[in-house]
Write a structure and sequence with these properties.
Layout lengths: L1 E4 L7 E4 L9 H12 L5 E5 L3 H13 L5 E5 L2 H7 L6 E9 L9 H9 L4 E5 L4 H9 L5 E3 L4 H12 L7 H16 L10 H11 L4 H8 L3 H15 L4 H11 L8
Length: 258
């Protein structure tokens, strides 16, 4: 049976009690009747198996000015039974909590297909970049970690409704760092050089002086010279010019800058 959260100003909200509640207060009935008259409005559908969590989330979003009704249910089956009591769905907010994307692998594509064109946005306790990418690839149109504030959450939902895709800024920075790290680790040439030696190799290929290499890599110039000696030994080169030539041949697919 559906129960209504009391009017908090601009919008109303509906929550579904899946544990056998039998009574609804007169105020709840009145709010439900009023909501049925607003057939031109759309609502945010919250799906969260935890009753307290979804009710608190619904109230919080309303208190912070979410400009639409909120319908909160424990599952999609609960929503199907009671969907006549709420306006059309504008967006779905799926709260997975601490669950991993593997546990909801089929949920997101199913929801995306069922509610299209309404977007599905995932709310999660994790901000792992790999999980975010997998969730987005499965059909979600936004990923909100619970580490962000309520206002950001509302903006993310609005962005998804307008056709955008929300990804937390912290995850974008993490992805950038990951890409940069992987790029640096490509240079060792199948284990020929250590990561630090590979960084020196890249600098040598660009014709940089030892002082510049030391400054950019935050090393002492004497340490750079040691790395260069090791590089020369591995390449069986006798001087810097020979090192440059051999490096150029090893990186034949790249452009060498002298």
């Amino acid at each position: 049976m559906a129960s209504s959260i009391p009017d908090l100003g601009k919008v109303s909200a509906f929550t579904h009690e899946s544990h056998g509640a039998k009574s609804v207060s007169p105020v709840a009935n009145e709010r439900k009747e009023q909501s049925l008259e607003k057939v031109d409005k759309r609502c945010l559908l919250i799906l969260d198996g935890r009753a307290l969590g979804r009710e608190c989330l619904a109230r919080t979003l309303i208190n912070h000015g979410l400009a639409m009704d909120v319908a909160a249910y424990g599952s999609i089956d609960d929503w199907r039974q009671m969907k006549g009591n709420c306006p059309p769905v504008a967006a779905v907010l799926l709260n997975i909590g601490a669950r991993q994307d593997g546990e909801i692998a089929t949920d997101i594509p199913r929801l995306a297909s069922l509610f299209r064109p309404a977007p599905v946005v995932v709310l999660s306790d994790s901000d792992d970049i790999a999980q975010i990418l997998r969730v987005l690839e499965s059909g979600a149109q936004g990923y909100i970690p619970t580490s962000v504030g309520v206002d950001v959450c509302i903006e993310a939902i609005g962005l998804a409704i307008e056709g955008g895709v929300f990804v937390p800024a912290s995850s974008v920075l993490a992805a950038r760092h990951l890409i940069a790290t992987e790029k640096r680790e490509v240079s060792p040439l199948a284990g020929m050089f250590t990561v630090r030696q590979a960084e020196v190799v890249e600098a040598l290929r660009k014709g940089k002086a030892n002082k510049i290499i030391a400054y950019e890599l935050k090393l002492r110039e004497s340490t750079v010279k040691v790395h260069i000696r090791h590089i020369m030994k591995k390449l069986k080169a006798t001087n810097r010019t020979e090192v440059a030539c051999k490096l150029n041949s090893l990186f034949s697919g790249d452009t060498f800058t002298s």
